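Example for tutorial group B:
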């Protein structure tokens, strides 16, 4: 029995290492594949794209809710001074604005039933500011969801979605030599 303890311990350490590596690497890999798939489906960078209404024909892997209107915006804050301004038009029913980082983590969700919601998304390491959210990673996805359980409400949500904004801006740093 004792001669099996060493190999068993090595096996357990290796299994734990593989498990931890998978936990660390899988989310980034999954999100990079998702970002590429979104780009292939013409989800624009720094702008909301409203896909077709969810049906078995429009969803081939993940089954989204057919009762919701979805709009997606990919973002990239790699450039110095980059920030994304986001505006979600008011909607009379449930709606939410969710932010997902490059590791698939939902790091912020705002709800705004009946009212407009505006926020700035700042790059990692930024000082938090009033009306702003700091992204944990430079890249990610912003998602708007609106309750639209039938074709008429989906059409109305699509019309409302025309006022949604997701735009890249560059904040110009003040010149320290000027006073």
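The residue assignment follows.
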């Amino acid at each position: 029995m004792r001669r099996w303890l060493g190999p068993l311990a090595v096996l357990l350490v290796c299994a734990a290492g593989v498990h931890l590596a998978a936990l660390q690497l899988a989310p980034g890999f999954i999100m990079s594949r998702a970002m590429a798939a979104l780009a292939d489906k013409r989800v624009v960078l720094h702008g909301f794209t409203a896909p077709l209404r969810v049906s078995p024909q429009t969803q081939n892997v993940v089954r989204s809710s057919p009762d919701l209107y979805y709009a997606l915006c990919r973002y990239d804050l790699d450039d110095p001074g980059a920030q994304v301004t986001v505006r979600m038009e008011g909607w009379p029913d449930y709606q939410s604005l969710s932010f997902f980082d490059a590791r698939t983590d939902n790091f912020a969700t705002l709800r705004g039933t009946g009212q407009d919601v505006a926020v700035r998304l700042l790059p990692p390491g930024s000082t938090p500011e009033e009306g702003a959210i700091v992204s944990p990673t430079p890249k990610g996805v912003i998602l708007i969801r609106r309750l639209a359980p039938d074709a008429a409400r989906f059409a109305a949500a699509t019309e409302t979605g025309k006022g949604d904004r997701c735009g890249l801006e560059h904040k110009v740093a003040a010149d320290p030599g000027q006073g």
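The chain has two helices and eight strands. Compare this with the pattern of hydrophobic and polar residues in the output above.
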